């Protein structure tokens, strides 16, 4: 027990030394760096300003970055999901049952409308071809019969009712021929192909993003999943579940900024296209759909995204990390670099503060350099400097 207590005491002593060393690492150089030619405690130029020599060790604890302006947000970032734009997407099913003989398209490939996707060995297609040929032949034969009966009737060789019967047969043959042609047109079938070989074609231009069929597979027209998904990747949707309390903050046509984890710091612009007509009774949220252009093909369907509705593309505010903000009571402060080694604590007014960033409404301009890491140390140093001056 005594040995255990000794080990515990040694551990606590080591932790205390580490804490003291960290504090000493920042403060041991304070007086020389702030007033290198004086033996007195360091004094700031004003109550909100700190001065460091160019090679002051304290500067190594700081990160200073230039502030950029971003569109002013209406609400905090919302969770969203990148999805296919159904107005530019086709989910391709087989209209016939059969067995896949050949796959002519691969995932990721560019495809044009009418290009081959796969070849299907389908008895149903063979029947459709036979029906079309039979209907055309029957139409031709009954048209000839009708022409002969008209000629015989003109010379009084047959009764009128025989002409009428031939005309009715011809009209029925026309209807059957049109039905068979419509069926072939619906199938988009190629009569020049081998009997029973159905070619499934692309209905739109785009890129094949999904394929759920292999050579030799049996397919059916009532399948649950599509054989191919063809989409235009330059046009996407972003789906948002908007909380009920924020419904008044978004209108149709509003701009949104979209961020994804794959590209930190990069913002994609979109527009609110659809606002759902009813709330989900369980989540108390409403579906909002935004249209998003994807010119560089960076975004992919099913990516998670953070979507921020913005007031206007023209209305921009400086954005700073939350780590750069020091809060005292009801007020917020940041440290701005006036010149190398000269840092000023400045009071700012925030427009909106999210989980990562804050937007500054007053007190800061885009292009100024702000301390993004180490602001709390500077604030502590400023307080100790002010105390030393007063003493």
Question: How does this model look, in words?
Answer:
The chain has 391 residues and is α+β, with helices and mostly antiparallel strands. It has three domains: 49-70 and 316-390, conserved putative lor/sdh protein from methanococcus maripaludis s2 fold (Beta Barrel); 78-85 and 234-309, Elongation Factor Tu (Ef-tu), domain 3, CATH 2.40.30.170; 95-230, Beta Barrel (OB fold (Dihydrolipoamide Acetyltransferase, E2P)), CATH 2.40.50. The protein is 27% helix and 34% strand. It contains five helices and 23 strands. It has helices at residues 2-27, 30-34, 123-154, 160-187, 375-390; strands at 49-51, 63-66, 68-71, 78-84, 89-92, 98-103, 110-111, 116-121, 197-201, 206-211, 218-219, 228-231, 235-243, 255-259, 268-275, 285-293, 304-309, 316-321, 326-328, 331-339, 342-353, 357-362, 369-373. Strands 1, 3, 18, 19, 20, 21 and 22 form a seven-stranded antiparallel sheet that branches. A hairpin with a 3-residue loop joins strand 21 and strand 22 (357-362). Helix 3 (123-154) packs antiparallel against helix 4 (160-187). The chain is elongated. The two termini are 49 Å apart. Mean pLDDT is 82; it is low at 1-5, 28-45 and 386-391.
